[in-house]
């Protein structure tokens, strides 16, 4: 049971807008603070497959793999079987200036045969797999213009103009996730400064949220909690 003090913090965090996706002021979509090791898949085969796609189908023929400042990775990626055929699709979100503006970055969806299925501009994390499907393909939730949108599959392809997609509201799920994070054994052990971290793994679940926090005895270090609001599970991340 969440104590009254925790409830006060919960509503303060949510309604002030610090942790709500819909209320975020996203002034710079290039990653500048969080290390890529928090998000990258450790599976070597998947990492190699994503790198091959970037080199062969995203970069220009005379272009080398881009680099970013501060040791951050030039792109993020995630895998999910969107059409339930037993093979994963891969989503790649570029992170370098050539592929990004202040409005967001370029994102690409490829099949397991490295066929490009869709491309978006000016998007940013979180990019999640929705529970619902259309025409045999799972919806994709992605962020653009300080809002989240539901990208549906129609007429043989995903919608690529995000502004024409229906908005997705996850306020209630976020509220539940904040409560679970505050009441977790990890945060109650000297935790402070809980905040929703929007750079959660690409193709995470619709009810999954990533939080960052500090501890009073280690105020200079960031810690992370992965919360599944549907299954009511909280774990340290990574």
Describe the structure.
This protein has helices spanning 4-16, 44-58, 171-182, 185-188, and strands at 75-80, 89-94, 100-101, 104-110, 116-134, 137-144, 147-151, 153-154, 157-158, 191-196, 204-205, 208-215, 218-228, 233-236. It is α+β, with helices and mostly antiparallel strands and 238 residues long. The chain has 2 domains: 4-25 and 170-236, no CATH class; 36-123 and 138-164, no CATH class. Strands 1, 2, 3, 4, 5, 6, 7 and 11 form an 8-stranded mixed β-sheet that branches. Strands 10-12-13-14 form a 4-stranded antiparallel β-sheet. The longest helix has 15 residues, at 44-58. The protein is globular and about 50 Å long. Mean pLDDT is 83; it is low at 1-41.
Write the layout of secondary structure elements.
Layout: H1 4-16, H2 44-58, E1 75-80, E2 89-94, E3 100-101, E4 104-110, E5 116-134, E6 137-144, E7 147-151, E8 153-154, E9 157-158, H3 171-182, H4 185-188, E10 191-196, E11 204-205, E12 208-215, E13 218-228, E14 233-236
Helix pairs in contact: 1-3
Largest sheet: 8 strands, mixed
**Roughly what is the average pLDDT, rounded to an integer?**
83
- In one word, what is the shape? globular
| Terminal residue distance | 26 Å
- Helix content, binned percent: 10-25%
InterPro entries: Integrin_alpha_N
Keywords: Membrane, Transmembrane, Transmembrane helix
